[in-house]
Amino acid sequence: MEDQSEAAQVLAKGLREQSYAVDIARDGEAALYQTSINDYDLILLDVMLPRRNGIEVCRNLRASGSAVPVLMLTARDAVQDRVQGLDTGADDYLTKPFDFHELLARIRALLRRAPELQQETLEIADLVINTRARRVSRSKRAIELTTKEYALLDYLARHADEVVGRAQIAEHVWDENYDPFSNLIEVYMQRLRRKIDDGHSRKLLRTIRGEGYMLSSGTSTSNV
């Protein structure tokens, strides 16, 4: 959520290239609306948003009971501005201009605070995912994945042995531009199956008809 459209687009592009799904809110009112209808893992919140500034948005989020991590972005560097942002409920504060790699490091740090995202290494049977280095291997053999393939696998791995529906995947792996009538999720699941399961008698990726998908640590050798 940025206060300048072009800057927001550039930032979103960089984050998407790092496997994050990103939505953009043009102003504070839009930000509050989007957080009311979507389940976000983290919010980048610009203090200088129009209509409602970032301080107001953060205050409203916390008043509503939301505990989503909030990273404040602003051009202001006065101590009182940082204090106000943190006192309102922000978890971290980054002054513009900032280095993109520092932003990524702060995002990773905030995401690790959530219990389900603490692990640096995810292991499902003989599949190993290094979430910091974004490296994947199975039976100690490295697997090369595209950015979106990795994002999909990472999400499934964090919900291993749970059935994950298409709507959940679309919300957490894609962004607001995802077409719910497309077959992108099916296409990417097929790609993952070829890379993760081909050549292995033990199949980890399963389709649960009428419900969704599962990355299973069980011993099933076929998809449902």
What is the CATH homology-level superfamily of the largest domain? Response regulator
The first-level CATH class name of the largest domain: Alpha Beta
Q: Would you list the SSEs in sequence order as H and E?
A: HHEHEHEHEEEEHHHEE
Instruction: Please tell me the total number of domains.
Output: 2
Low-confidence stretches: 219-224
Helix content: 25-40%
Shape: elongated
- Mean pLDDT over the full residue set: 85
Largest sheet: 4 strands, antiparallel
CATH fold-type name of the largest domain: Rossmann fold
Overall SS class: alpha/beta
Give the spatial strand order of the biggest sheet. Answer: 4-5-6-7
* Assembly category: single chain
| DSSP strand count | 9
CATH architecture of the largest domain: 3-Layer(aba) Sandwich
Strand content: 15-25%
Radius of gyration, taken over Cα atoms and rounded to an integer in Å: 19 Å
Number of helices, counting only DSSP H or I runs of 4 residues or more: 8
Q: Distance between termini?
A: 40 Å
